[in-house]
Amino acid sequence: xxxxxxxxxxxxxxxxxxxxxxxxxxxxxxxxxxxxxxxxxxxxxxxxxxxxxxxxxxxxxxxxxxxxxxxxxxxxxxxxxxxxxxxxxxxxxxxxxxxxxxxxxxxxxxxxxxxxxxxxxxxxxxxxxxxxxxxxxxxxxxxxxxxxxxxxxxxxxxxxxx
Amino acid sequence: xxxxxxxxxxxxxxxxxxxxxxxxxxxxxxxxxxxxxxxxxxxxxxxxxxxxxxxxxxxxxxxxxxxxxxxxxxxxxxxxxxxxxxxxxxxxxxxxxxxxxxxxxxxxxxxxxxxxxxxxxxxxxxxxxxxxxxxxxxxxxxxxxxxxxxxxxxxxxxxxxxxxxxxxxxxxxxxxxxxxxxxxxxxxxxxxxxxxxxxxxxxxxxxxxxxxxxxxxxxxxxxxxxxxxxxxxxxxxxxxxxxxxxxxxxxxxx
Lengths: 162, 254
Known about the structure:
The complex is a heterodimer. Chain A is an alpha+beta fold. Chain A folds into 2 domains: 11-75, Winged helix-like DNA-binding domain superfamily/Winged helix DNA-binding domain (Arc Repressor Mutant, subunit A); 78-156. In chain A, 56% of the residues lie in helices and 12% in strands. A 3-stranded antiparallel sheet of chain A has the order 1-3-2. In chain A, strands 4-6-5 form a 3-stranded antiparallel sheet. The model of chain A has no long low-confidence stretch (mean pLDDT 92). Chain B is an alpha/beta fold. In chain B, strands 6-7-8-3-9-10 form a 6-stranded mixed sheet, with helices on both faces. In chain B, strands 2-1-4-5 form a 4-stranded antiparallel sheet, covered by helices on one side. The interface between A and B is medium-sized, with 36 and 33 residues.
């Protein structure tokens, strides 16, 4: 089965974008925004798309507008933000598929190699290495998945909660 | 700010010279100022104005050539363990995990492993790094690396947090995010540290964050001016009063 990939942009940039927009009253022209940030338009669009995937903004016409969920995240404390984003990610089909896969494993963990193979199957058109590091990042931020680079094991978040 | 402000750190006629092959160079000349407890101060100036040297004299890493640094009214000699530093390039050890990097600053201060671990966990939570405990710096984005740098500094519960260009290695959006989170941490009354001194060359950043800005002139660094920022937070760049402050800082720098 094919799934949509995760945003390949880190959470800090996405939060920075939404915070900036909230400071501007919640709406801005995308082209103008890129100019003001001295960012390439393509780069700006990648961050906006990532924020949109998380339900933080939407993009009517050439504008980017903060959603209620975006306002809620910006107002939340550092720890509450993580919880809000986790709830979103839990419903991502790709995250669900990875969870099911890990749950079916003994000790709910797999090796990095096994994970790369699984990703080639789940998101065949994406670069598996890049997807893996993005999943590790989002997995760690949301605490849904963990990864140990020494032992090269990828595991279900709750299984090793300290 | 507290009505009866207490002076946390004071520089009295501080001058710093360095011996270089081409002769003696004065980097800082006759600088005096006080930082009150609870204040957020930025030191702004061109590169080469001796901003980092000034910070290193405040944490005691470097003694002044002339003058004195007073901490809580006493002359400071040697490293001040009541301060902690956040660096531009994060200052993380690549072979240590996030948790181990944060614990590093605590090792010089406490032999109690249980206490150290609990401090590490407490500050990992504060900066939003739960889930990253066993990650290595190479696996992290710049924003996450600087959160580690911040957690390591906060974990020792300093009374004074010193920051050397903490946002200038980060991309523009990440730096917006981290500035906001730093303000959240600064205004959180649960935290021990409530006095912050930041060095930056970014004027807007200084106005956005600070109660007071000290403007340094170049070679040797002297105080060219001082500005109190009387704007409620969060501060917005499009606010005309914000732009006025930018102009005033520029005119003092020029």
